[in-house]
Design brief:
The protein is built from 12 helices and no strands. With 230 residues, the protein is an all-alpha fold. The protein has 2 domains: 60 residues, Homeodomain-like (Arc Repressor Mutant, subunit A, Orthogonal Bundle), CATH 1.10.10; 113 residues. This is Transcriptional regulator, TetR family.
């Protein structure tokens, strides 16, 4: 009985490892070629596996993409509520730095940025933005619906910084203190009674974001004003 359980446990471990290899390979291929252009052949070749192994775990490219998007969360989606209330700017700065410095986080972010028109990716972008928005609302100490507009300078700074850094080679280091200072400025602007309101920029979703654009015009405006160049 013990030997059977051990063998069963080993098979389960091997299956998990195979599944993870396929997910990792899919992430690489989706970023290198785009989701639309990626082929299952390229994914299994990158994983060093067979199509049979892929179809054992996934129905096809769509289910593989969905599993990949569900298996990873960016640091900006895991901001501790207490940290955001106590020290929001340094907390956001560390999360941005970890996103652009860690290979897996960077890969997921690049996948989202480069494939916004893929339905599964668009849904994942909206989910990530919703999580970030809730964190910003905690930092601003408000839950009102208007908070999504008051947080525009902060969101723009975060998204603008990520968009710029993701198009460059991975940085050797990130000036977390400098980025925190910039984010503190953006938070200060957001807290002002006359904080600027983003101008209309096409179809806007319920959370105030356009799913088809990673950096809409208002975001670009604030990123340029408060984030500057790297």
């Amino acid at each position: 009985m013990g030997a059977r359980r051990a063998a069963s446990g080993l098979k389960a471990q091997q299956a998990d490892e195979t599944r993870q290899r396929l997910l990792d390979a899919a992430g690489r291929v989706f970023v290198e070629t785009s989701v639309a252009s990626a082929t299952l052949e390229a994914i299994v070749r990158s994983a060093g596996l067979t199509r049979g192994a892929l179809y054992w775990h996934f129905d096809g490219k769509s289910s593989l993409l969905q599993a990949l998007l569900q298996s990873r969360r960016l640091p900006l989606e895991q901001l501790a509520p207490e940290d955001m209330r106590r020290a929001p700017a340094p907390t956001l700065a560390r999360a941005v730095a970890e996103t652009v410095s860690d290979a897996r986080h960077r890969e997921l972010c690049q996948l989202l940025v480069r494939n916004p028109d893929v339905p599964e990716v668009r849904e994942r972008i909206l989910l990530a933005r919703c999580r970030l928005q809730r964190a910003i609302q905690r930092a601003l100490g408000t839950r009102q619906a208007a908070a999504r507009h008051l947080g525009w300078p902060v969101r723009a700074c975060v998204i603008g910084t990520l968009a710029e850094w993701l198009e460059l080679p991975p940085p050797a280091g990130v000036d977390v203190d400098g980025l925190a200072a910039v984010l503190e400025q953006a938070l200060g602007v957001s807290r002002q009674p006359d904080a600027p309101h983003p101008s209309p920029c096409g179809v806007v979703q319920e959370d105030g974001m356009r799913p088809s654009s990673v950096l809409p015009p208002p975001c670009a405006h604030w990123a340029g004003r408060y984030c500057g160049k790297r």
